[in-house]
Design a protein that fits this description.
The chain is of the alpha+beta class. The protein is built from 2 helices and 3 strands; from the N terminus they run E-H-E-E-H.
Amino acid sequence: MTTTIRTSSKNSFTKIQKYLRNKRVFFTSSINSEVYALTIFDLSDVATNSLINKMTKHFHLTKRQEPMALAA
């Protein structure tokens, strides 16, 4: 499963990067039109949900889940 975290704040982007590195999570980062994105790879659904919930509480964030694309 892959999960993408997007933010327009460079400060938040840097803090989340540091958090993921400390948790030893495999991710890639990208910057496109002043939108910072972190894509997390190779975690199960349960591990991803747990990580996102812990990170949301840690940084006092809100989460917005985008709809999944329909299969063809």
